[in-house]
Amino acid sequence: MTAPVFVVEEVPTGAEFVLDGPEGRHAVSVKRLNPGEQVVLTDGRGGWAEGVVKAAEGKDRLVVAVAAAGREEEPAVRITVVQALPKGDRGELAVETMTETGVDAIVPWQASRCITQWRGDRGAKSLAKWRATAREAGKQSRRVRFPEVAEAMSTKQVASLLAGADLAMVLHEDRDTPSQALATAELPAGGSIVLVVGPEGGVSPEELEVFAAAGAHPHRLGRSVLRTSTAGTAAAAVLLARTGRWA
């Protein structure tokens, strides 16, 4: 088993560090870590420190002897998934599995055919859930660089994001719309890939036109039609394997 990951505000630079608060409570009272066990501390932005538990004090204090520290650099090819808002808690499912898979950024998208609407307090709460899900999934999957979850974007804002990418794609499967297989698309050796995943009702013709004007064209996976909450994860897996990040 790999060492459990705990999030800290700043990666420790000294020889000893006390993990307390909610993370300390989780380590002591939930994980029940004991002296001699290994842990990883991360700021979620690439910084990390490896250490060994020296002592567990009370219910929420873990004393860690820091053995090494460093920083994981950003990947040569950065993958961003623009995720149309799914219904119910399927949005958190999409964020969780994409984080575990290894995407670098997730952008909520208010597509025209989305049933779910992020407005006011509901939108703020939903965004907070997505961000909390990414954080917890990042810890669970032993990442030290968690995906950024952006503010929800409109179609116009997504088009602007696509225009600045080294490769922009729309995951779209329609017998009346020509598309290229994602498995054979030419990928950049470096820079950014931005992939749009539409809602259950699909990307509208008007949105496809806007995205095409920004340089993003339709791509498809296999013969199966995936739900919006799983399509991003499947597509990210293809891209991660083909860019060598899963090598």
TrEMBL record:
Specifically methylates the N3 position of the uracil ring of uridine 1498 (m3U1498) in 16S rRNA. Acts on the fully assembled 30S ribosomal subunit. It is found in: Cytoplasm. Residues 74-239 form the Ribosomal RNA small subunit methyltransferase E methyltransferase domain. Keywords: Cytoplasm, Methyltransferase, rRNA processing, S-adenosyl-L-methionine, Transferase. Its EC number is 2.1.1.193. Pfam families: Methyltrans_RNA, PUA_4. It is an enzyme of class 2 (transferase). InterPro entries: Alpha/beta_knot_MTases, PUA-like_sf, RsmE, RsmE_MTase_dom, RsmE_PUA-like, tRNA_m1G_MTases_N. The keyword Transferase applies. SUPFAM superfamilies: alpha/beta knot, PUA domain-like. Residues 19-64 form the Ribosomal RNA small subunit methyltransferase E PUA-like domain. It catalyses: uridine(1498) in 16S rRNA + S-adenosyl-L-methionine = N(3)-methyluridine(1498) in 16S rRNA + S-adenosyl-L-homocysteine + H(+). Belongs to the RNA methyltransferase RsmE family. This is Ribosomal RNA small subunit methyltransferase E. Its main location: cytoplasm.
